[in-house]
Amino acid sequence: MSPLTTYPSPAEQQVSALKTQLSLLGAEYGELLAHARAAVAAAERGEADSVGYVRDVLAEHGQLPPAGESPARLLAGTSARIAPAQDGGAGCAR
Known about the structure:
By secondary structure, the protein is mostly helical. It has a domain at about 35-70. Helices cover about 55% and strands about 0% of the residues. The protein contains three helices and no strands. It has helices spanning about 10-45, 50-60, 70-75.
């Protein structure tokens, strides 16, 4: 007798795809966070183009803002906000 071959159900396939997407999103977030931190460190050291660290990542993803766009307008257009920490912000630098 040969063993039966089992295939993942549609729900299992969807869960697997979502796990892959979440993993990729986490990696991209980590990359953006590292570049943002590098930009802050560069600014504190007085580097002339400290924002270049973030600019490069945004350009790679086609996310550079339109020329002349207002920073306030860009921030006002965000639909997702980070919720305050449940611990009252302890351990969260702002």
